[in-house]
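Holo model, guanosine-5'-diphosphate. Inputs:
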Amino acid sequence: KPEYAFIGRSNVGKSSLINRLVNQHGLAKTSQRPGKTQLINHFLINESWYIVDLPGYGYAKVSKSSREAWEKFIRNYLTKRESLQCVMVLIDSRHEPQQIDLDFCYWLGECGLPFAIVFTKADKQGAGKTDQNVAKFRKSLSAWFEEIPPVFVTSAEKGEGREELLGFIEEVNKDFVLPKL
Ligand code: GDP
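Output:
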């Protein structure tokens, strides 16, 4: 069954967004310990597709060796998975482009993996600020990519962007069934 991977810096709002997307509170949990438990959670949605919850990156206090272990682990998963349709890279919309996120996008590009950018926590600041950060991120990406991947602006709090994101997933996977509201 088709898989859609969700990944981002720790605390980016990944669990909240996953739960909001499928309207199942408590489905995804923030329980990943930095560098320690490298767990991949698969959530089967409507018996037709998977949300793949990947461990976050960018923990402040992580040794070089655990960071490398994480990279190896993620690389293994992402490059070997035939049913993987798209990697959703979550970015906190409150911040200006962060090198670690850009690096991850470049790496996905190099691997030829399809990905989309999903900005989170859009309710936390004014729309103007969000737009600014989105524009800056796009600009940074355009230095490397001829084609900018799909971009979504979301809020797990307000539900903003949910329909757009589900619509995109539906488009990528025609057999996909929308979660019931
Ligand atoms: P994860 O570590 O990436 O899974 O992040 P979580 O989903 O646990 O969220 C981290 C923190 O950000 C929590 O305190 C959430 O309540 C908060 N948060 C997540 N998404 C949103 C959002 O869309 N709006 C607001 N205001 N807060 C959010």
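The chain has one domain: 8-172. The chain has a mean pLDDT of 88.
Archived with the compound record.
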